[in-house]
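Dear colleagues,

As part of the handover before I leave the project, I'm documenting each prediction I ran so the next person doesn't have to rerun anything. This entry is a single chain, and its sequence is reproduced below.
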Amino acid sequence: MSHKLRVGELKEQYMTDEEIWRIFTIVLSTKSVKSSTYKFVLIKSLIENLYQVSDNNELTYDQIAYAFAKVYWNLVVHHNLVNQNRGPKHAKVVSIIKDFQQKHGIPSEFSFDKISDSLQLKMVAMVKTVMKENVYGALYGDTRGTFYEFDHKREYFRLHPNVLRFMRQYQRLIINLTNYHMAAMIEELNEVPSINYLLSKVESIARRKTLKPFEQILLHHFENTCFYCNKKLSDKKGSTHVDHFIPWSFVQSDQIWNLVLACSKCNSSKSDKLPKREYLHIIIERNDKLNKQVKPTFNLMENYRDKKIILLYDYSIRNGFDIIWSPK
């Protein structure tokens, strides 16, 4: 009954990559009891926050619950994949989200990021309660207390430093494995037409539908020029693009410190590639300015460190993003 645990302490001081892989394999396989998709979504939520951890490898429950709620909203409401467990009743998080949608009259076509901030916070608080009851302890038990420690009273969650490094180093493979096994379970539980193009739905459930709010912040604080080619951006609608400096398909999250303004030509040409390393130094300088200007008003640069985007750049290369791009 590990899912009922309120406190879990780390049981290993050091873990090899081989030991971590072996546990990951068990977690994703049929050897791990999965009555719902909770464990998969927790792993996806941790991946989304790999570069948002504090200097002590800690995450808040709110950070994890936000990602967790976003995934389930987009699965359950946006894609109508309501069956997320093997029991006769809906998984508790599904019931909460469906009730929340009906209570507040939110259209089904709304993705999570289109919901107002105040309603998002209310939903995240409710989802956080479910996670305390059914999620943290379950994955803790499957990983034998070696991957992370947690405390419900303090709302404290800390990844083992070796596991954090491992997840960053093999991030792309872990994402693909998690998406595959999660899609297989959802496919088993749901019926057509909801399961059409299921894997692509699972792969994209964390992606924002629009980066317009970030565009407005960047335009407010910086000149209206392309980050890559320095050409002035046109005022014409659709000509300014918000680009993920490190491709979204690797980082799996939308952090302002990884977002830049780009012209349509550069954005199209760069696509899913990694910019030349010289641009890494430029974005670090940009983020230093952004940190000073934005932090008093927004909480968008929390836990940002220059070393994190450098790590992200290096780990993305190790994960196969080795086609280096620069504007022509």
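The chain has a mean pLDDT of 91. The longest strand covers residues 240-244.

All the best with the project,
I.
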